[in-house]
From TrEMBL:
Keywords: Ligase, Membrane, Transmembrane, Transmembrane helix
Source species, domain of life: Bacteria
Transmembrane segments: 12-28, 34-50, 62-80, 115-139, 159-178, 185-202, 208-224, 231-251, 335-356, 363-381
Residue ranges occupied by any O-antigen ligase-related domain in the UniProt entry: 190-342
Pfam families for this protein: Wzy_C (PF04932)
GO cellular component terms listed in the entry, alphabetical order: membrane
Protein name per its UniProtKB record: O-antigen ligase
Subcellular location: Membrane
Molecular function GO labels: ligase activity
Membrane topology: Multi-pass membrane protein
Length: 414
């Protein structure tokens, strides 16, 4: 009698895949897991590559490699001239180790859209449970970032909330190209609901905006894919309900932001959330204009910026804050070189679609990860923060695996 084998098997690559899916669930919930897990995956994938000697899909691997390395190209230049140090690129550069896990995922015959949807959903559920427990003073109370109100587990609430929306984008994108099923619909609905609760408890406006855009694109995509008038009507109702819920729960914060915006331009810079961002952007713009090609790095920017503070052009407090925008931070830090690296991250999905002749829908996992990253990065620094940088590149790697694994046959990318 033949023995029964589990769908993924408990040996070889199936075993490692199952270990990955289960261990990935603690990515946010356990302190420093987001740093440790990529290293573990790297070591395991290196052994896999050395043992199995799989085919290397160089074009796909290079896309990931460039998404990491182009961002820090200007930093390397400024380190050479003494304007920055290695700590300024460590948050990004360490994600290069995910190239080997990407090789494993691309060669794993058991990987599928559903397996990624399930693993990300499990991770988001564990994260939501940990977040709610923190809110009720049961878990992660020793976190230095928790003030008893806005949850963030082990990090500042802003990069934490932005990071989970990036993974939500991955889940929704993978669900779009996965075979249709009621289970997928249930998982998507629950994921959107629990992530909305987490974002609400974090009180992060940038994550809320990113969340709304990502969910809107998902609902719009499935509405356009289904020609039934009744179904599209339900999708319109869902979108309207999402807007109403957002306005009801976050309306006071949006109103406060608008009020601070008017006061900034009428009365001048103040020590408020909106005013700090506007002043920081202007401060970064002035530094960029002083050296638009290469920027001034992390050290040089502070020295040059002090002259603008002394001249009264910008308030003194902006020196103590980051640029509050991936775009302005790249301009200030590395000039046009920094902008080039960041633009590659934003535009690479479209380059991939054109190069590999992939439709917009089939590229949905990568596209929604980039959209979530870009929207929240307009008012926050994602690519230079530990947890959000790790989260983005981890989600990006998984998205590449979901998109390209089914399209690889006979060692050649179609």
């Amino acid at each position: 009698m033949r023995s029964q084998v589990l769908p993924w098997g408990l040996k070889g690559s199936g075993f490692f895949l199952m270990v990955f899916l289960l261990s990935f669930s603690i990515f946010f919930a356990v302190e420093k897991a987001y740093k440790i897990l990529p290293v573990i995956y790297f070591i395991a994938a290196v052994f896999y590559v050395l043992k199995e000697k799989p085919f290397l899909y160089l074009k796909i691997i290079l896309f990931y490699f460039f998404a990491v390395s182009f961002v820090i190209f200007g930093d390397i230049f400024n380190i050479f001239f003494g304007n920055s140090d290695f700590s300024g690129i460590e948050q990004v550069a360490r994600n290069l180790i995910l190239v080997f896990p990407l090789v494993f995922l691309l060669n794993n015959e058991k990987i599928s859209e559903r397996s990624i949807v399930f693993s990300v959903f499990l991770m988001l559920c564990v994260t939501a449970i940990a977040s709610i427990l923190q809110f009720y003073s049961v878990y992660a109370q020793e976190s230095s970032h928790f003030n008893g109100q806005r949850i963030g587990l082990w990090w500042n609430p802003v990069p934490f909330a932005n990071s989970i929306v990036i993974f939500l984008g991955l889940l929704l994108g993978a669900a779009l190209i996965a075979p249709k099923s009621y289970w997928n619909n249930i998982i998507v609905g629950l994921a959107c609901l629990i992530m909305f609760v987490v974002i609400y408890l974090s009180g992060t406006r940038s994550a809320l905006l990113s969340y709304f855009v990502v969910v809107f694109i998902y609902l719009l995509a499935i509405a356009l894919d289904d020609k039934r008038v009744l179904f599209r009507s339900w999708m319109a109702v869902a979108l309207f309900a999402l807007v109403i819920a957002t306005a009801f729960l976050f309306g006071d914060r949006v109103a406060l932001a608008v009020e601070q915006l008017y006061r900034h331009f009428d009365e001048g810079p103040e020590y408020t959330s909106v005013s700090i961002r506007l002043s920081s952007w202007y401060y970064s713009w002035l530094i960029f204009l002083d050296n638009p090609l290469f920027g001034y790095g992390t050290r040089g920017a502070s020295a040059v910026g002090k002259s603008f503070v002394d001249a009264g052009v910008v308030p003194e407090y902006v020196v103590n804050y980051h640029a509050h925008s991936d775009i302005f931070d790249a301009m200030k830090r590395n000039g046009l070189l920094g902008i080039f690296g960041l633009l590659w991250v934003y535009l690479s999905p479209f380059i991939m679609m054109w190069y590999f002749k992939i439709s917009l829908r089939d590229m949905a996992p990568v596209l929604l990860v980039i959209v979530a990253f870009f929207i929240s990065g307009l008012t926050e620094i994602n690519i230079r923060h530990n947890v959000s940088a790790n989260s983005f590149y981890m989600a990006y790697m998984l998205a590449l695996a979901v998109v390209f694994r089914p399209k690889v046959q006979g060692g050649k990318v179609l």
